[in-house]
Amino acid sequence: MNQPANAASARTVTLIRGDGIGPEIADAVCSIFDAAGVPIVWDEANAGLDVFEATGTPLPESVLQSIATNGVALKGPTTTPIGTGHKSVNVTIRKALDLFANVRPSRSLPSVSTRFEDVDLIIVRENIEDTYGGIEHCQTPDVHQGLKLITRPGSLAVHRYAFEMARREGRKKVTCVHKANIHKLTDGLFLECFRQVAPEYPEIEADDLLIDNTCMQLVSDPTRFDVIVTLNLFGDILSDLCAGLVGGLGVAPGGNIGAGRAVFEAVHGSAPDIAGKGLANPTALLLSGVQMLRYLGLMSHASRIEAGLRRSLIDHVHTRDLGGNATTDEFASAVISNLPAPDASSQADAEAPEPINVGKTGPVVVSDENWECIGADMFVRNDGLPDMPKEVGPLKLSMISNRGTKVYPGPTPDILLVDHHRCRYLSETPITEADVRALIQAVGDKYAWMHIEKLHRDSAGERMFSRAQGE
Ligand code: NAI
Question: Fewer CB atoms < 10 Å away: N or C end of the chain?
Fold first, then answer.
């Protein structure tokens, strides 16, 4: 690949071509960047299925080092085996580099026919936490568990990023999307952090909406949204939904942003159904590249490439996903031939904008001075209701539930019982580690137990655990 004439002053960017359609669309984007004279030198470092098959690891350490050194990467999609196999390369990169905000704009494009014409919203997806920690366990052969972890510092960071970005881009409203009516502790904490941060940005309207209602509103009238900030899993799903609103996965870009480093990649995956056929639409990765150029301060290059892209779409050079018959290469050639003349003002591109840096410095807002352990949930394996000890030291058996439904005390409801019971023990007064050990001993003498969760109350005497559903 050609390097720009002014390579001496060029910015080095890691290029991960990925697998599936990744190499085809990465080639298309690189050829457009070359033709546009973008001052970037690529540092190629590959990852994904092909690398896994060749080396036994999908993400060599050298790839992470390259991104950490260069600070910026453009990444093609990488396949993640479903149900089994190696860990997701994407999730691993996001976590290893602490890329905590995933910024996914959805904007209507010219001549791309969709139900709505004026969609212009940005999803800011929390990118590290939630169920994406991949902390999953087999509790019994029939019962598997995944932990949903939401933290105060992580939530504060992504909310601050969303509001800072909204302020910088002149956006009017930030909507927090959650399911705090059911996930009262986890999504409840995410929403609480949103409500803490929002007043720091009085010029920006702030509201919140349940995820289910959000989906209905988005497909009814997406123009009511401006910036959406949401949890990791909801953000993953919502961004595919929003891709559908503006023409599909072939046109939906994104950027994973951390403190001083960023990886830009399309929303879509490796599309194995069309890989190697020259059918892939490179628009999503190209727009991710445009997002990257703006991040690097190369504004006029970004605008010029975007103009070439828009002109090509207006000329109805469409790949198959948009109803046309242009190949990936033909589309790239069209964008190149539609690049407007370079803007004399491109000299102004020398300085990158100050990155939005919310750091890891969320203020300590909750004291644990009066944080007290007053009980424990023990999870035991048994076919049918277990005959648990009623009292162990200060701890009394208060409740047993099965799949979240209370089955003790009171009549056992006529429901499907699995071999996994949550047995709740509570004490009137704070308990000690010795009390917990005694409980484990007493329960363990009768039943196989899988795990134990301590239950706390906070300084206000509120039982922190008891806001959860069904309690
Ligand atoms: P996908 O996004 O790869 O494909 C879904 C559908 O959209 C397919 O019909 C595909 O042909 C079409 N499509 C996607 N990108 C397109 C493009 N640029 N041009 C034209 N059509 C396009 O989703 P799928 O099939 O669920 O996942 C395939 C693999 O990709 C999985 O292993 C998944 O884990 C991985 N994946 C990787 C991501 C990444 O690297 N950032 C993101 C999402 C999925």
Answer: N
Cα(130) to ligand 1 centroid in Å equals 22
Residue 361, pLDDT score: 53
More confidently predicted of 217 and 357 = 217
In the chain, pLDDT over 70 holds for what percent of residues? 92
263-300 tens-digit pLDDT = 999 999 999 999 999 999 999 999 999 999 999 999 99
Ligand 1 atom closest to 273 (CA)? 11
Cα–Cα dist 382/169, whole Å: 56
3-state helix/strand/coil string of 8-57: HHCEEEEEECCCCCHHHHHHHHHHHHHHCCCCEEEEECCCCHHHHHHHCC
Residue 244 Cα to ligand 1 middle (Å) = 13
Nearest CA to ligand 1 atom 8: 271
pLDDT exceeds 80 at position 353: no
How much of the chain exceeds pLDDT 90, in percent?
80
Dihedral (CA of 368, 374, 379, 384) sign: negative
Domains of the chain: 1-99+247-352 (3.40.718.10), 115-246 (3.40.718.10), 371-465 (3.30.70.1570)
Q: Give distance in angstroms: CA of 395 to centre of ligand 1.
A: 52
